[in-house]
Amino acid sequence: MDGIADMGGTTGWGPAQRPRADEPVFEEPWQGRAFAMMLLSNRLVGGNVDSVRHAIERLDRDAYLDDGYYGRWLNGAELLLTENDVLAPAAVEARARRLRGEDVDEPDAPELNLPRREPVADSLRSLDTAPKFQPGERVRAKNMSPPGHTRLPRYVRGHTGVVAQIEPPSVLPDTNAHFQGENPQHVYTVQFDSRELWGEDAEPFTLTIEMFESYLEKAS
């Protein structure tokens, strides 16, 4: 879906900072707990890696940007728990206010009715069909805006690249995120010239992206 999470290729965010050589896994203890809470919340509701990504990309601007990277994980976990009726929508805020000493009532927990889903160990699959595209072939990223989850970046849509190699088939995130089936597809490493994406004034380099077969079409 097109939203705040699809930031690739956009401008105005300032220079990227090189990570420190001694950078810890988590700068502060709460960040590790936030990461763990998202993993546990997703397991509780029977989610998968794609449903996690879809939860995070549906956050509003404040929840996605102002609360920082691990704030997104916390906000995404809260969304998963509330929309699956594990928590009432106002429960987290009520608990936070009570921790600050305010005398507020916490809403009653909803009736728990979690769907039964089998956990997915990995995303790689086997296919009997042959890949539609071959290395060296020119392809175009389809110019489409799916209403749900997708891993097709907005900035490559409608642009032409070259297949560099064929990767192992994998579960399609677009359907897996919504529990509509795995729909495994061939995956391709596609190379795009920066000037094809951002015009002749762009710094010249080659951008490499892994793309699912349904994202691509033959370039004329």
Automatic annotation (TrEMBL):
Residues 1-23, 127-154 are annotated as: Disordered. It comes from the Bacteria. Residues 1-107 form the Nitrile hydratase beta subunit-like N-terminal domain. It holds the Pfam family NHase_beta_N. It catalyses: an aliphatic primary amide = an aliphatic nitrile + H2O. SUPFAM superfamilies: Electron transport accessory proteins (SSF50090). It is an enzyme of class 4 (lyase). Residues 125-218 form the Nitrile hydratase beta subunit domain. The keyword Heme does not apply. Its EC number is 4.2.1.84. The keyword Cell inner membrane does not apply. GO terms for molecular function: nitrile hydratase activity; transition metal ion binding. Keywords: Lyase. NHase catalyzes the hydration of various nitrile compounds to the corresponding amides. NCBIfam families: nitrile_beta. Belongs to the nitrile hydratase subunit beta family. This is Nitrile hydratase subunit beta.
